[in-house]
Amino acid sequence: MRVGGVMERAFMTGSSVLASLEGQQYVVLRPRGDVATFYDAERAAFRSALPAAVTSPNTGHVTLRGFEEPARTAELKDFLARWAGRQEPIEVEVTDVDGFAPPFQILIARLARSSSLVGAYASLTAALDGTDFRRVGELPLEDWVFHLSLIYASALTEDEWNRAHANAIRSVGGRPSELLTEAELVWYAGGVEYTEIFPFGSNELASRR
User: Fold this and answer.
1) Are strands 177-180 and 2-3 parallel, antiparallel or unpaired?
2) Which residues contact 128 (CB under 8 A, 6 or more apart)?
3) Which of 88, 84, 75 has its CA nearest to residue 183?
4) I want to staple 107 with a disulfide (CB 3.0 to 4.6 A). Which of 73, 142, 150, 188 is the partner?
5) Contact 88, 205 (CB under 8 A)
């Protein structure tokens, strides 16, 4: 995937996965430093240890919101540009490897509820409450688990999942962290993933000129 002349790794790959995401859009954060390095190593270790039936994202990411507005991508871009323009950098810090229980069966890298991450989720919710965009998979802030999905393990039996989860859960030493300065809108159309980057703080910078 090429963004702004730079080749970026796609978040999701595979025809069946892309088909399942058709018509959906997501606001995501893309770690590029220590969190990304941790993610890639952890995911690779799980993929080599677990049955071939499990799948995973192609690139680690933190999802802040999902939509089902295939005809309104341009409006979503305009909205996200305004929100990101007022947004300060977001700290992401990995604290644990954990999992979402059945029926989801997803191994995750859990993130600390940093003030900047919690604040970004809350401000995005407040901004969205003034729109009529169709949001999917949304939960109240107090119920939302900030994370990066490592492994999708719904193909495992319950016993296989229980063993995989028990072997995976742990606190992460060193707590990899990084400061993120942009969000991305990712959307899926015609079996293809598209993305656009929105830097944080652009409105504030413009006002100072």
Assistant:
1) unpaired
2) 65, 79, 135
3) 84
4) 150
5) no
pLDDT digits (tens, 9 = 90+) for 154-165: 999 999 999 999
The phi, psi pair for 42, rounded to 5°, reads: -70, -45
Please tell me whether the overall predicted TM-score, pTM, comes out greater than 0.90 for this model: yes
Both tokens of 147, joined, read 């994370």
Give the whole-angstrom CA distance, residue 16 versus residue 26: 18
User: CB-based burial of residue 5 (10 Å sphere; 0-12 exposed, 13-18 middle, 19+ buried)?
Assistant: exposed
The domain locations on the chain are 2-199
pLDDT in tens, 18-74: 999 999 999 999 999 999 999 999 999 999 999 999 999 999 999 999 999 999 999
Span 2-199: which CATH code? 3.90.1140.10
